[in-house]
Amino acid sequence: MAERSSGYRPTLEDVAHRAGVSKSTVSRVINGEPRVRAAVAERIREAVDELGYVPNQAARSLVTRRNNAVAVVVTEPQNRLFVDPYFNCLLRGIRQELVRQGAQPVLLFIEEPDDYPRVGNFLGGGHVDGALLFSLRTDDPLPAMVDHMGLPAVFGGRPADDSDHRSHTYTYVDADNRGGAREAVRHLLSLGRRRIATVTGPLNQASAIDRLDGYRDMLPDAPPRLIAEGDFTLRGGADAMTVLLDRCPDLDAVFVASDLMASGALRVLRERGRRVPEDVAVVGFDDLASIAEATEPPLTTVHQDIEGMGRLMAQLLFRRTSAPSASAADSSPLSSVVTPVRLAVRQSA
Question: In the chain, N or C: fewer CB atoms in 10 Å?
Answer without folding.
Answer: N
